[in-house]
Backbone:
């Protein structure tokens, strides 16, 4: 026979998977759950811990337990895909908000990331990606102006890659990626709907043209509960 906490766990999981408990819904307090299920606090805490461990809820200190979105968006680790292309594959309403667009001089950090000489011009593009009404990705793009002479608001709100390939005739070939989990920053708080999250998944992209020229450095900051990072691997024999 299942223990009491596991029975409670299964009942709540069923409600989440059937949509009876929607994403961001706050669960009843521990005291309320004790009354609902007529069990001890320890039993409720075991059920909540299991729910959190398996990705169904997030417990936020001082606020309670909240249902997570279990329908995550697949983000290919090995692919080189624009947000517009990703959006077209998803059955979800999406929107791009352009926060910054300017030409800047490369500082020491960008010189290192883009392999530039001092004071070379770089496009700085800050875009917020909104999916199903939630701002969940912050994209910080830096493009070597030597390869991209012009960018406009319209281009950035549509697809930079589409413009580079179709209008400029550039051939985007490959990228090196680094994925880390970091503490959120004030910039993340400013632009994203974090809903209590204190960590963020950062994907750094170093993108190259067909002739192996490094032309773009991107820092893409994802809310951790909304994405599933996927890849395909084959063992060599």
Residues:
């Amino acid at each position: 026979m299942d223990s009491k906490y596991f029975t409670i766990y299964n009942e709540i999981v069923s409600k989440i998977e059937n949509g009876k408990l929607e994403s961001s819904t706050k669960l009843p307090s521990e005291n309320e759950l004790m009354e609902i299920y007529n069990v001890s606090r320890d039993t409720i805490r075991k059920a909540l811990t299991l729910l959190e461990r398996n990705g169904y809820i997030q417990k936020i200190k001082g606020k309670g337990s909240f249902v997570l979105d279990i329908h995550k968006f697949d983000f290919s680790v090995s692919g080189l895909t624009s947000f517009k292309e990703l959006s077209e594959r998803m059955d979800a309403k999406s929107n791009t908000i352009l926060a910054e667009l300017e030409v800047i001089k490369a500082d020491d950090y960008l010189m290192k990331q883009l392999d530039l000489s001092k004071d070379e011009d770089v496009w700085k593009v800050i875009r917020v990606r909104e999916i199903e009404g939630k701002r969940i990705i912050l994209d910080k793009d830096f493009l070597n102006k030597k390869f991209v002479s012009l960018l406009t608001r319209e281009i950035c709100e549509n697809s930079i890659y589409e413009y580079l390939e179709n209008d400029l005739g550039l051939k985007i070939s490959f990228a090196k990626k680094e994925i880390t989990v970091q503490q959120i920053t004030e910039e993340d708080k400013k632009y994203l709907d974090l809903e209590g999250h204190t960590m963020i998944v950062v994907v750094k992209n170093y993108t190259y043209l067909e002739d192996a020229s490094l032309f773009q450095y991107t820092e893409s900051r994802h809310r951790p509960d909304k994405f599933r990072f996927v890849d395909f691997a084959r063992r060599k024999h």
